[in-house]
Design brief:
Length: 174
């Protein structure tokens, strides 16, 4: 089996789950799919925007894990202008962290700077701050696709002790 530049064993094509605001950032997901097709197996074909029909949050979280994250080693979060407001993105990040999956946030060009920082989903920000999650820009991965695969490998090799998942899950979109 091949190893990454970080000495981590990798398969020839890593499976990753992509979380994003479908209504606002679909074109970035489409671009990512076409540009990274040969390097990654991207999983999102079962959009959570189509609600899981249950008021039982434990059931909903189990469905996210079983139907959406199963088989993935890492979650990519495409962070656009409205991503931080999306309940399902927060729940997907929560479920990914519960499963101790790697986590990579991707700063999209439509993500505004506010007071010198960005509006990431709060749970993602917690994990960037703890140095568990990786944070990369769209322009960096567009210029060099290896930057994304390297970020995924760093995320998958990060200490699981740095995971921060204590926040209450969002109850609704903001």
């Amino acid at each position: 089996m091949a190893t990454s530049t970080f000495g981590v064993p990798i398969s020839s094509r890593r499976s990753v789950f992509v979380s994003y605001h479908h209504g606002g950032d679909q074109r970035y997901y489409d671009d990512l799919t076409s540009s990274m097709h040969d390097r990654l197996r991207l999983i999102t074909d079962k959009s959570l925007e189509r609600r899981i029909d249950s008021a039982d949050s434990a059931y909903v979280m189990r469905r996210i894990r079983d139907l959406h994250l199963h088989g993935s080693s890492c979650t990519l979060v495409l962070c656009g202008a409205e991503t931080w407001r999306r309940k399902w993105v927060d729940w997907e990040i929560h479920a990914s962290l519960t499963q101790k999956m790697g986590l990579v946030g991707i700063w999209l060009p439509n993500l505004p700077l506010i007071d010198g920082g960005t509006s990431k989903p709060a749970r993602l920000q917690d994990n960037v701050d703890s140095q568990f999650a990786q944070w990369v820009s769209w322009s960096d991965i567009a210029a060099n696709p290896v930057a994304l695969t390297a970020a995924i490998e760093r995320a998958n090799s990060a200490s699981r002790l740095a995971i921060r998942n204590e926040r209450a899950r969002m109850a609704r979109n903001l």
